[in-house]
Amino acid sequence: MTKGPTFNPPPGWPKPPKGWTPPKDWKPDPSWPAMPEGWELWVLDAGDTPQAEPAIELDSDPTDSEMPPNELFALKAEVAMLRAQLADSSTAASETISLDDQKILQDIGIYRYHHPLENAAGYRAELERIEVEIAKIVREQKAIELSSTFTFENSLAAGRKLSNDLGKLMLRAYNAECDNCIRSLRNGNPGVAKKRLEASRKAIAKLGKIMEMQISAGYHDLRVREIELTADWLMKKQEEKEAEKENRARIREEKRIEKEFAEERERLAKEKSHLENAIEALREKGERNAHLEENLLALEDAIKQNEYRLANIRSGYVYVISNQGAFGANVVKIGLTRRLEPNDRITELGGASVPFRFDVHALFFSEDAVSLENELHTHFRDSALNAVNARKEFFFATPAEVRDVLMDKVGSLLEFSEVGESLEYHQSRKYWPDRPAELN
Fold first, then answer.
1. Domain assignments of the chain as residue spans, ordered by start
2. Range with the lowest mean pLDDT among 13-17, 85-89, 200-204, 364-368?
3. Is-above-0.70 flag for pTM?
4. In angstroms, rounded to a whole number, what is the distance separating the alpha carbons of residues 64 and 44?
5. CB of 380 within 8 A of CB of 298?
6. What is the pLDDT of residues 289-347, one digit of tens each?
7. Rounded-to-integer distance, Cα 191 and Cα 185, Å
8. Helix and strand tally (H, E) in the chain?
9. Longest dimension (CA), the chain
10. Residue 289: partners with Cβ closer than 8 Å, 6 or more residues away
11. Residue 435, pLDDT score
12. Counting beta carbons within 10 angstroms of the beta carbon of residue 357, is it exposed (0 to 12), middle (13 to 18) or buried (19 or more)?
């Protein structure tokens, strides 16, 4: 065993050859990992030194024994540095891919139509026209460009035949790639498909360079347009599907409301009949009951209101509610209910799907509640939590901001609460486990 201090490399440093001593003014490579606090570079017995992990083992080479130890260690250190740089570049590449994927997701979030048309049928008709034009270009042999002077085995005819055969093969490969791109399209991501098709076109031009072979610009532009139209068509179909779903839900809601009003009409009619019979019986005895007569007047007023709402199905209550425990501060839901008891709807919303009940900031009755709700949604559209699905009615806004807009549209409000009680939420906070402040 060698007496005296032995060099003890920290974790992640290259392991020096036995007996190595650092040259004058030697400094560790700045790319190496930092030494742990309190680490001793020189120890009396390296075998007894605790190490968190083994030093990096460098590839051995038959010439190691023939090279001076100091020079050998310097070379190994350089290899370690290059490996670290290679690892960093690989990490950067993977991060770039991740960022590209994130960009695609952002593009999907807010879709911009490449060729705006009125409905899905319009896109389908335009796609059929594109298909006819594609077939025409292929028939006229304008889809791929070839050299007419390429020779094969000193024969111009053989060269043209080879060019034509290879051109057909390349065009078939290009069309197959385009069809695969279209089949793999999802709502809102044509960018990836267009990049794939452009890469296919460049590959064909590179492979067919000797024959001056390339997919014609006109044909490529047409197929790119086909991809964009297909993406637009898929998105428009999805929008129409969502609109139809919303329309069916609206019809179901209107039928349910009509049934509820009809049942209320029947109940009120029976109650009115009982009161009228009771009052008539007292009248026959020469008696009067002021309380029963007041109840009858109130009942007749309720019947009129019920008939009015049955005839005006667009009337209802616009509500502004929040749930700080579920969605955080400064988030409100703006909705509409036609129920006779609007609080029943709010109670349903605060059911088992959310941890706390909703706080009610406003319940405003409107003869045209549908239009009022739409106007409020339009005003706060840019603040919607869900930028894709407009049927989700949550917005980043304070109750006071909604109040100002509501007053501007209806003139006055009898009652509006700017601050919600959130009683259950505040009582529960003290029992919560510790967690990052931003989650509170």
1. 1-109, 120-238, 256-311, 316-439
2. 85-89
3. no
4. 26
5. no
6. 888 888 888 888 888 887 877 766 778 899 999 999 899 889 999 999 888 788 888 99
7. 10
8. 11, 8
9. 133
10. 278, 279, 282
11. 64
12. buried
